[in-house]
């Protein structure tokens, strides 16, 4: 029996940006889009071009290779045509492949929020779809307040859906905007919508205000929709959105869904799920939820006793899926074997082949666990993991050694009488037999240290010429005056690759310098690998 295709639509970069305390920079968006590409979602909605400088710059280039790059915006404003609406035109003229426009599906909201009539709104919806479709965009209409609107005036809600399809929209997305609809209601209403819109052109966009966004999404799929929207780790406005990190493995691994539906995510991509979820949290400078389904540190944890005894005899007793299927691991009676399996997989991903019975793995596993207990997290810093692994395995070259460094910050009045802050860094580096000293001023101690290190790296100076520090995040792990600080540094070069390194110390400058040092080392490892490839 052939399976129905389900399409996964990620709104992390748009819905997620509405989360309290989260503000995405351009570099954040580029990095997160790359994570979503790794995961294998079908659509990446990047934001609202024209609404702010970050989103406008983000849409100046195409940011995905396989996923459909999608812009979000509103249907045209009353009193002007879509062809003359700046908001619509910003989306149409962007590098996006698809355009998702929000429209009101509740007559009360049309009159209250837009001050318009339902007829005017339907006309504007149709005009917007036609203009975007004519420009070559794949068009989606997100029907805001759909379920509440359907219950208040089902004829108007259905008219919105019919109008969008008739005008040329590829998808009509039913949005549970305030997250208050029950799963049984979602299923029943979707079945009524199917009378006017086929399921393979319907999507579900659920919010989590009653903790049922995932359940509502699954109910909609069972009822007939074929596109599911959500965010990484369920972030979003108020209580968040449907959590794709929970939805995806449920759709892929649970026979009830897996036997009837297929997605673009295969077993290999699914094994990256835990890593992607935790790397995303690292990017947001927040601790991963330990009890998150599938990917949490406690998702497959069992205390000693009768549960552990039963688990040893039959893992399915307390594990609904194998932990390794989502890249997680069992946490019971110190499962060294599970840890080794994860290490071997992670090493292979970086071209480091190590047999599972290699005794060096024991040392590497113990080192990783010890360092993570001190505050390191390698899910979001794979470059640092490569350096640590090669160091423990005895295959890490010593390109250069830092003899000492010093960073000073001085606040004073300049010659014009303006109060300024000046940062200076001095770094002594040994490259082979040569001792090199460099001094640089920068915009803060990390920038000054970065500039001083790259000023003279001896015979390696040319190899770091295109190295660029693009982002820097600090997280305090323990409170108080003796707080442990974790620093995550993002770097890139002319190849387009981005990598992440980590440093941990009670001293923020020490933590920063450690991450900076490892970024330089990883760049030199890349250069060495490139030379070896050329020679071969």
Automatic annotation (TrEMBL):
Reaction equation(s) it catalyzes: pyruvate + acetyl-CoA + H2O = (3R)-citramalate + CoA + H(+)
MF terms (GO), sorted A to Z: (R)-citramalate synthase activity; 2-isopropylmalate synthase activity
Biological processes annotated in GO: isoleucine biosynthetic process; L-leucine biosynthetic process
Pfam families, alphabetized: HCS_D2, HMGL-like, LeuA_dimer
Top-level EC class: transferase
SMART domains reported in the protein's UniProt record: LeuA_dimer (SM00917)
CDD domains: DRE_TIM_LeuA3
Functional pathway: Amino-acid biosynthesis; L-isoleucine biosynthesis; 2-oxobutanoate from pyruvate: step 1/3
Domain Pyruvate carboxyltransferase stretches: 6-271
EC number: 2.3.3.21
Record keywords, A-Z: Amino-acid biosynthesis, Branched-chain amino acid biosynthesis, Isoleucine biosynthesis, Transferase
Family recorded in the similarity comment: Belongs to the alpha-IPM synthase/homocitrate synthase family.
Name of the protein in question: Citramalate synthase
Organism: Devosia geojensis
């Amino acid at each position: 029996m052939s399976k129905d295709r389900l399409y996964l639509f990620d709104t992390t970069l748009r819905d997620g940006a509405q989360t309290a305390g989260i503000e995405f920079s351009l570099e954040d968006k580029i990095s997160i889009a790359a994570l979503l590409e790794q995961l294998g979602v079908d659509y990446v909605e990047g934001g609202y071009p024209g609404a702010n400088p970050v989103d406008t710059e983000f849409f100046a280039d195409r940011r995905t290779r396989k996923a459909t790059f999608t812009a979000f915006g509103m249907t045209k404003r009353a009193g002007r045509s879509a062809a003359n609406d700046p908001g619509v035109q910003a989306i149409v003229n962007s590098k996006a492949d698809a355009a998702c426009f929000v429209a009101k599906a509740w007559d009360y909201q049309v009159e209250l929020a837009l001050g318009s009539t339902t007829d005017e709104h339907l006309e504007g919806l149709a005009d917007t779809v036609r203009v975007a479709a004519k420009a070559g965009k794949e068009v989606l209409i997100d029907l805001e307040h759909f379920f509440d609107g359907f219950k208040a005036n089902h004829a108007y809600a259905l008219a919105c859906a019919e109008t969008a399809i008739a005008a040329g929209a590829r998808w009509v997305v039913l949005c549970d905007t305030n997250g208050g609809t029950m799963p049984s209601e979602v299923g029943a209403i979707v079945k009524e919508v199917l009378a006017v819109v086929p399921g393979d052109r319907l999507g579900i966009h659920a919010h989590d205000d009653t903790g049922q966004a995932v359940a509502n999404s699954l109910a909609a799929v069972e009822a007939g929709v074929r596109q599911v929207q959500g965010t990484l780790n369920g972030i979003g406005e108020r209580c968040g959105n449907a959590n794709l990190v929970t939805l995806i493995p449920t759709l892929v691994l649970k026979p009830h869904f897996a036997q009837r539906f297929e997605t673009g995510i295969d077993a290999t991509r699914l094994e990256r799920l835990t890593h992607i979820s935790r790397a995303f949290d690292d990017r947001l400078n927040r601790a991963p939820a330990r009890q998150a389904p599938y990917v949490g540190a406690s998702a497959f944890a069992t205390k000693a006793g009768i549960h552990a005894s039963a688990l040893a005899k039959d893992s399915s007793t307390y594990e609904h899926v194998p932990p390794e299927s989502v890249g997680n691991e069992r946490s019971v009676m110190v499962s060294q074997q599970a840890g080794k399996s994860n290490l071997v997989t992670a090493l292979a991903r970086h071209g480091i082949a190590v047999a599972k019975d290699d005794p060096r793995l024991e040392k590497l596993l113990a080192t990783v666990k010890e360092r993570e207990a001190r505050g390191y997290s390698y899910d979001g810093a794979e470059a640092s993991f490569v350096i640590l692994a090669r160091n423990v395995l005895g295959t890490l070259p010593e390109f250069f050694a830092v003899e000492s460094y010093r960073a000073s910050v001085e606040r004073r009045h300049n010659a014009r009488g303006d109060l300024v802050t000046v940062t200076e860094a001095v770094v002594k580096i040994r490259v082979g037999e040569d001792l090199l000293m460099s001094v640089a001023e920068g915009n803060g101690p990390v920038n000054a240290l970065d500039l001083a290190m790259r000023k003279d790296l001896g015979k390696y100076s040319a190899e770091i010429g295109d190295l660029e520090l693009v982002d820097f995040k600090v997280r305090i792990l323990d409170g108080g005056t003796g707080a442990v600080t974790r620093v995550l540094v993002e770097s890139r070069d002319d190849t387009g690759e981005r990598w992440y390194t980590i440093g941990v110390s009670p001293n923020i400058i020490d933590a920063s310098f450690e991450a900076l040092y490892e970024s330089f080392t990883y760049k030199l490892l890349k250069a060495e690998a490139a030379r070896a490839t050329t020679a071969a």
